[in-house]
Amino acid sequence: MAERAGRKMAEFTLYIGNKCFSSWSLRPWLAMRHLEIPFEEGFVRLRTPETFANLAKVSPTGQVPVLNHSGKIVWETLAILEYLADLFPEKKPWPADIDARALARSAATEMHSGFREVRYG
Hints:
This protein is an alpha+beta fold. Helix content is 42%, strand content 17%. It has a domain at 9-92: Glutaredoxin, CATH 3.40.30.10. The strands form two sheets. The protein has a four-stranded mixed β-sheet, with helices on one face. Strands 1-2 form a two-stranded antiparallel ribbon. A hairpin with a 2-residue loop joins strand 5 and strand 6. The termini are far apart.
């Protein structure tokens, strides 16, 4: 296991569904790729008879995405992104400017909650 800035780098596994149809899965996948954080991709087929049993093996909520970091389980898109921001502050996942950062977090929260205006007009 390599060391980085005094902390041991462990393996990351990101469990996701279909990136084409699950934007919740796509978001942390894109963030980890953009931030150049190495990870294994754990793909869970959705909408099959085995889906719930397979999700129960990796997710406390029975949903994706889920990040496994050396046995530490983090779920929900924003929680995963904030966890990675705490682990890798040098990668600067959020804007440095406080106003820009507030705007970025507001947009991320709106996206996470499902774009209410897009869905309901």
